């Protein structure tokens, strides 16, 4: 007998305010105009004046959508969008990084490289500069031993108290590598080298469904977690994409129904759709969503537009439905370089899975 928890799209209805719905509608209208220009661009790519005209239109529409997203999120204290929070000089770096991830020519190795950078930036957004007044000193022994052994001093924000109760909650499988990256950031900033415990949740959107009737299936038989270890903790979710918010809400609602009372919940996404972000903060209390980039809309299949496609597939490759890899096989397929980079995290995950 299956041991699945299922959330349906309709269960998410009712959380959004009338204002949210109005803003989502405005965004859909703007994006529909962009789609008209995409069609023209694809059809007339050999006509320079058409290309210039439609490109100008798209640039203008993206400016308008960006302004609307900034306005919508400005009054939402639980939504942190990198470019809306951080100073202007850092925006170009993030914009270029997202452009690389979106590009269909960016293959697996480069995709992994940019995802690693994305989560370092997200970590910094939540815990880094300005967040901590006091500093820890790193005293580093360098390889230079002439004329004597050299040591260097580096000051980093002292975030020991903020991270000491963190638990990584992994939404398998797209979020596996991002969660290892985030846990390693915690470890590197911790003055005691704290390695987060892991809680692993096998969650899947039903790809045969559309946005309106989407189902989010949490397979408890393929999940590994200890409810007790989540009580009073700072739960961290790090997933490349948040589209409708349904996968995240399914897990968090399940945990809350089981009586788990987290101290806080932080969600980190590389790209989050406006609607999905609003669905999360409207349906869960005490949660903060950090996203490197916000995308305007979803298509009928609940994919983010313009998006970057299926992040799980781009990170992990495609699994056959009838023969999906288990978590140990997924980690093995990252290869020895990544496995050794995230050695402590792999050890912790194996302990969680194998007992
Ligand atoms: O906000 P939502 O609408 O719930 O969508 C977001 C989820 O979709 C992706 O996972 P997917 O279901 O594609 O599975 P995967 O992790 O195996 O790629 C992604 O990694 C998120 O977990
Ligand atoms: O656009 C999307 C939506 C969900 N999951 C993804 O990987 N991409």
Question: What does this molecule look like?
Answer:
Its EC number is 2.4.2.9. One of its GO terms (molecular function) is uracil phosphoribosyltransferase activity. The chain has one domain (4-16, 77-354): Rossmann fold (3-Layer(aba) Sandwich). Helix content is 46%, strand content 22%. It has helices spanning 9-12, 18-43, 48-74, 82-85, 91-102, 108-127, 160-163, 176-189, 246-257, 274-283, 311-316, 327-334, 336-341, 343-354, and strands at 4-8, 79-81, 135-141, 151-157, 166-172, 198-205, 215-224, 234-242, 264-273, 287-295, 297-298, 304-305. The strands form 3 sheets. The protein has an 8-stranded mixed beta sheet with strand order 1-7-6-5-8-9-10-2, sandwiched between helices. It has a two-stranded antiparallel ribbon with strand order 3-4. Strands 11-12 form a two-stranded antiparallel sheet. α2 (18-43) runs antiparallel to α3, α5 (91-102) packs antiparallel against α6 (108-127) and α6 (108-127) packs across α8. The longest helix has 27 residues, at 48-74. The mean pLDDT is 95. Bound molecules: 1-O-pyrophosphono-5-O-phosphono-alpha-D-ribofuranose (PRP) and uracil (URA). Uracil is lined by residues 174, 241, 243, 303-304, 307, 310-312.
The total domain count is 1
Oligomer class: single chain
Named CATH topology: Rossmann fold
User: How far apart lie the N and C ends?
Assistant: 23 Å
The overall pLDDT, averaged over residues, is 95
**What helical percentage do the residues reach?**
40-55%
Please list the strands of the largest sheet in the order they lie side by side. 1-7-6-5-8-9-10-2
Number of strands: 12
CATH architecture assignment name: 3-Layer(aba) Sandwich
Strand content: 15-25%
């Amino acid at each position: 007998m299956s041991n699945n928890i299922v959330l349906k799209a309709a269960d998410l209805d009712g959380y959004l305010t009338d204002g949210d719905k109005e803003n989502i509608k405005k965004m859909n209208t703007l994006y529909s105009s962009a789609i008209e220009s995409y069609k023209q661009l694809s059809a007339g790519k050999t006509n320079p004046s058409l290309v210039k005209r439609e490109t100008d239109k798209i640039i203008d529409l993206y400016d308008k959508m960006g302004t609307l997203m900034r306005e919508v999120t400005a009054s939402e204290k639980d939504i942190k969008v990198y470019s809306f929070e951080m100073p202007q000089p850092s925006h170009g770096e993030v914009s270029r990084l997202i452009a690389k991830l979106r590009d269909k020519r960016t293959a697996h190795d480069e995709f992994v490289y940019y995802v690693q950078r994305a989560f370092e930036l997200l970590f910094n957004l939540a815990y880094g500069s300005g967040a901590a007044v006091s500093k820890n000193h790193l005293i580093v022994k360098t390889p230079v031993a002439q004329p004597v052994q050299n040591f260097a001093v580096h000051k980093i924000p002292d975030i020991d108290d903020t991270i000491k109760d963190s638990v990584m909650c992994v939404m398998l499988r797209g979020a596996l590598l991002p969660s290892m990256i985030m846990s390693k950031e915690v470890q590197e900033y911790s003055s005691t080298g704290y390695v987060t415990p892991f809680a692993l949740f096998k969650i899947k959107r039903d790809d045969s469904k559309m946005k309106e009737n989407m189902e989010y299936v949490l397979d408890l038989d393929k999940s590994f977690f200890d409810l007790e270890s989540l009580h009073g903790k700072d739960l961290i979710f790090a997933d490349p994409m948040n589209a409708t918010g349904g996968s995240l809400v399914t897990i968090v609602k399940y945990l809350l129904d089981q009586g788990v009372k987290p101290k806080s919940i932080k969600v980190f996404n590389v790209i989050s759709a406006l609607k999905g972000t609003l669905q999360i903060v409207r349906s869960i209390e005490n949660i903060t969503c950090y996203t490197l980039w916000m995308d305007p809309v979803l298509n009928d299949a609940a994919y983010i537009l313009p998006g970057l496609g299926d992040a799980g597939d781009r990170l992990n490759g495609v699994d056959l439905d009838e023969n999906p890899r288990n978590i140990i096989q997924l980690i093995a397929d990252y290869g020895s370089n990544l496995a050794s980079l995230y050695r402590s995290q792999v050890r912790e995950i194996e302990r969680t899975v194998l007992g």
